[in-house]
Amino acid sequence: MLEQTRSQQYQKAHHRGFLRASVSTITAMASLEQTSALFRSTVIRRRSVSVEHFEITLAVNGFPAAAPGQFIQLLHHEPHAFEMNQGDANLIQFNTDTISENPLLRRPFSIGALRRSGDQTEIDIIGRVIGIGTAWLDALRVGNSVDFIGPLGTPFRLPPKNARAILVAGGVGLPPIRWLGMTLTDMGVDCRAIIGAQRRELLPVIIKQKPTNFAEFQHILGDFEPHPVHVIVTTDDGSFGMKGRVTDALAPILCGTTEGELVQVFACGPEPMLKAVGELCEASNVSCQLAMERVMGCGMGTCQSCVVPVKDDAASDGWRYALCCREGPVFDSRVVIW
Amino acid sequence: MPDLSVQIGRVRLKNPVMTASGTCGFGREYAPYLDMSMLGGFTTKSVTLRPRKGNPPQRIVETPGGMLNAIGLANVGIDEFMKSKLPDCQTLGPAVFVNVAGESIEDYVEVCRILDTADGLAGVELNVSCPNVKDGLTFGTDAVLLKELVAAVRPVVKRGVLLVKLSPNVTDICSTARAAIAGGADALSMINTFLGMKIDIRTQRPVLANMTGGVSGPAIKPMAVQMIHRVYRDVTRAAGVPIIGMGGVRCWQDAVEFMLAGATAVAVGTALFAHPDAPMGIVRGIEDYLIQRGLGSVNEIIGAVHEVRD
């Protein structure tokens, strides 16, 4: 009986711990660079985006303010008894050594879209099965729970309303670009997107109709709905849209910008693509923000593993390592050292 | 309620749960997830004399039941640490230990001398076993050198306790444990990471830019328990030197196991990366375990596995 009561107390305390974390994120805003918390979310939707990609929508209460470019750190397994209520001594009967957390570490996922309704927030993530963790995510069904920490990282700096935004996404780099496109359209910013992949199967997009002119921005994708973001789609092998790379579509647009026109580029994708996009923008003197990807141990700034070399005049030799999880994942293309 | 406080040298920890160096930054990173003031102790990431950028990426990779890291002692250096990091650490609440690394005895002595000028520090922990810097390994694996290093640092650590973090990459950990105590260590941190390596079979190259790194996480827990058990039995029990146990601790059951083997306190490390709130449940679980067994103090389980039973 005593154990029962204590156990309940611990559970309550544990819940309070969660609540305290989310409340403290609001009160501690001034002193902390980033505000995030631990969450237990519920899968409310799941769909296959392409042959290779899946999308999951997570619902959670009390999610702090977040912006495009930020990410969440997902646990890729069912939270175990000892993770949920570690203080319960009744678990002495339970052999915790036989619990293998596989994978052990969380993995970062960009927020692909975010919708709020009252206290509830819906978060979309897009993934591709590459190992046991992503296979577990892919197998989740509506009603399952997912443990995550977020929101994390520094978001995109939003452009002024009179700017023309060109969004560039390569493969699974689409999610942050998708949410950014929705946000910018809501703001009234003129926003178009170039989306590329090696071949059609690797395009994590919802194709509404085939483009009639490959080199023209057209409303052919359902991903930004209900926002009417016009896109150019490229594939390396020409299996869908323009044959070539995203930079082949971007270059003529940057060349065609008129004097005094404020153009800003936002990109996410594989590193060689980001480098090419960044260099193209620099050559055209166009501001460019890149959402980078790194192997992360924690995502919270402690493990120091996700470093990106950046230029820094304050450093004696002109450069330093920046943490992708805190200073990033969004970097100005001009500061990144390739 | 049972008494959870334990004694590490002249420092009293309000409970035996700490965080391990390199897994909790400088204390502020986990503030949104973990009430740092509930910890018994907190150990900073390694601080060196001069700032260090650390190794090029990739610095980390997950391995079966654990992870492999080669961060390369990235830190701001002792001067910047004293200015911008330490004042913040001191407001956290728990006893603060600063982990110190160096490439020479002079480096260690200088960093420790500067740290000894700070008020409110519980002590320093010498990282003599970080496997990523060439000279660090020799201190941690050579008993003669280790004793020389600890003896050189001892006189300048006047106010805090002196912890020495032992490397498991040795044939006989009792000999390095004895050397650290002979040099003047107040307590031993056991254990640091095991040397490891991972090769990408697609690129046929090591995954880590540093090629090798240190293995941590649940995978190394049985080895940590064995080493603590042996050092407690053969060295520290008679010497009256406490052990801070670490190596794969992720739940209260692990913490109790380490304490039964001979650890006076335990530090949570790699588990924090996935579960920054883990220490809260560990403290509660230890307390509950003591209540269930009718024990008045956590000290009653330290080294209890060594007690002769009928």
Describe this structure in words.
The complex is a heterodimer of chains A (338) and B (310). Chain A contains six helices and 16 strands. By secondary structure, chain A is of the alpha/beta class. Chain A has three domains: 22-152, Elongation Factor Tu (Ef-tu), domain 3 (Beta Barrel); 164-291, Nucleotide-binding domain of ferredoxin-NADP reductase (FNR) module (Rossmann fold), CATH 3.40.50; 293-338, Dihydroorotate dehydrogenase B (pyrk subunit), domain 3 (Ribbon), CATH 2.10.240. With 310 residues, chain B is of the alpha/beta class. Chain B has a single domain (6-301), classed as TIM Barrel (Alpha-Beta Barrel). Chain B is built from nine helices and 16 strands. In chain B, the strands form four sheets. In chain B, strands 3-4-7-8-9-10-15-16 form an eight-stranded parallel β-barrel, surrounded by five helices. Chain B has a four-stranded antiparallel beta sheet with strand order 5-6-14-11, with no helix packed on it. In chain B, 62% of the residues are buried. The chains are: A alpha/beta (338), B alpha/beta (310). At the A-B interface, helix 1 and strand 14 of A face strand 5, strand 6, helix 7, helix 8 and helix 9 of B.
